[in-house]
Amino acid sequence: MTLDEWLNDQGISGAAFARQSGIGFRQIVFRYRNGTSFPRPENMRRIIEATGGKVTPEDFLKQRDSTRRTPTEARP
Q: What is the pTM of this model?
C-alpha cells in the first residue's frame, strides 16, 4: 500500500501525518506521497510505525518503479 493510499484511507492530511509521525515537514510527506522522493532510514522507520506496518520500503520501491517512464518504441 502506498503512503498516499494509506493517508487517503485514513482521512489524514500530509501535514497532519508529518506532525504525528515526527517527519516534521508536509513538503517531505508530499514528495513521499507522489513518489518523487524516497524516505531516509529514520523517516522510513517513522512511516512504518505510524502506519502500523501497512506502508513498507517495498511499497516505495514499487511506487518508484511504476512511475518511471518506459522508453518509446523506435520507429522504422
A: 0.83
